[in-house]
Fold this protein.
Amino acid sequence: MRILFLVALCCCSPTYAQHKNLIQYVNPIVGTHRMGHTYPGATVPFGAVQLSPDTETLPYEVNATYNKDVYKYCAGYQYSDKTIVGFSHTHFSGTGHSDLGDFLVMPTTGKLLLNPGTAANPESGYRSPFNHATEIAQPNYYSVMLDKYNIKAELTTTTRVGMHQYTFPATDSAHIILDMMHGIYNYADKNVWSFLRVENDTLVTGYRQTNGWGRTRTVYFAMAFSKPIASYGYENNSKKQVYRGFWRKFDELHNFPEIAGTLLKAYFNFSTTANEQIKIKFAISPVSTRNALLNMTIEVPHWNFEKIKQQGQEEWEKELAKTEVQGDTETMKNFYTAIYHTLINPTVYMDVNGEYKGLDQNIHTATGFTNYTTFSLWDTYRALHPLYNLLQPRRNADMVSSMLVHYDQSAHKMLPVWSNSANENWCMIGYHSVSVIADAVVKGTYYADAQKALDACIATANHKNYDGIAHYLQLGYVPEDKNRASVSKTLEYAYDDWCIAQLAQKIGRTDIYNEYTKRANNYQNVYDASTGFMRPRMSDGSFKKDFDVLNTDEAGYIEGNAWNYSLYVPHQPAAMIALMGGKKQFAAHLDSLFSMQLPDSYFANTEDISRDGIIGNYVHGNEPAHHVAYLYNYTNEPHKTQERVRMILNKMYHPTPGGLGGNDDCGQMSAWYIFSSLGFYPMAPGSDRYELGSPAIQSAKLHLENGKTLTISTKNQSKKNVYVRSVSLNGTKLNQTYITHNDLMNGGTLVFEMSAKL
């Protein structure tokens, strides 16, 4: 592999001059081999536009059956592929399900081809072979040679605008294709409607509505060319309609200024001289083509590609430099690539004038906050949002505000579960916006209206139509014969109840605190003392008879098995350990988790779990066990937390295309790396406590938004020296295995003394 990194940046402002050229350590192509890959294209931090190459067009279904091969294209790109289909403007980063891939642009020459063709026969369509030797991936910049056409493609972005720069050979048959049929996780009838309008010889506008993961998702666009269009046309693959009105009197497919339908492709023709560049500004909006054009006018009022690239890279440098880390080269690459991944999602979801489409499908204006979308909350509540409370507290407060307006606009009066683009897609279990909100209030990040936030959390936690909650409220657990994944849901609802209790306590609502503290004990109702595991119960109170503690496809659990999920009581670890036989027995149980072998047959039918993400029977490649290594802190053997954390860091993270042990899931996998490599982890968001582990860096400076700096330093750090002999904060030795949020936010110096021996 040959990935080129930026070596030097323009230091054009005093603030920027202080930065350390940290983007040289970022590799946007880092992802997984088999599962939902991250994408390598251009975006700015939290950008609405995420402009990236797509390398395949596999359908979601074949013969009315789910096509398993489509899973690895959740982000549109796979490093092992040999062809590029084109460059689309919206993507998810490392998710286990997908959508988006809007507005694919592909430059071509020669005979006009409007079908993408196949990877096996790229000559049959407009896709092009490419070589990683010519591929450059940097924060806010992507470039590659399209070998079929001898066209150099370059991409960069602002928050709402993607900028393309295509260097053509001399030809009278240059084309730029806009494929509005293309998408990620495509299937028949996914495109509800699309519209395109040629405003003049350099400007095109339109929109696309899809019914995928987000069933009413509409994206508007404005597309400007740096050179006048010579001619243009369309291909309309929409189903033939019985009634077409009187549009039939026109030739709509050639040089006609507007077209509408479900399955549209457009092409724009040019003549070019050798090495002539055609540039495109492509702005998107959730509201209107007028707002898309406004976004373009405000964010990119010129045609200077290098200026946009530099401005975006300065944004990245500024964000990366909030955490200045020193370590060996691989650690630096892992760390800053992880930081990069944590700043991709959630995404800005409003136009430059503050307007956005709400969950009620009406137009709203965000007043006093930036509205965000792309909340993969079953994943990101665990470490990503706690990381924002440390390093991005103002931004996280805006995300909480975004969740609360979601609640206001919801017909169900529920907080987000997994939301994107004015849609709730209900993916995964729980309602972990409750955790995000409680964590922000408890840590002092969100101040605006904590009582309203509490009311929204309570309403969500008592919505009886949602996913087993009625049974949970009645029985104290979710029964498996009434609702699948019952153990996972019971455990996660109990944790969310605890979060509500912490939020209530923070604002002085003792009545709510007492009620939800009691509910938080419901995890005990699915513990089976005869097996030592959390086990599915039936509505008559009996435990499910057939029970396999290793099977990750076992009824009662989601994306995990009984070994991993039975440890999911992050809010009451000491009580859980007592329930499971005490500290000595529990530590031996954890030892077995990490040392036993989980045969492939036990996860063969579980799409989100692969061998790459497993250590023994510990599944790091999926989130439910991310806190588990830190549970040793509650036994008499906290040194094993230090051993396990360093082992996981070394085995699950590498700065290569297949370097992650599982889906990054919108930044959660990377957030775990950041916290753990710094030496502490938020095991139970909603608490102000971080469990101490074993730092993998030499030193770090965290530049906090309150103006203070937290310096983390290590003595005798090395790959072998994984044990912590002592920890001190501002010269005072810590005699416990945790540190508090206030300790960190007050700044100062945190020192770990390391050793190869206990």
In short: Residues 486-506 form the longest helix (21 residues). The domain at 31-305 is CATH 2.70.98.10 (Beta-galactosidase; Chain A, domain 5).
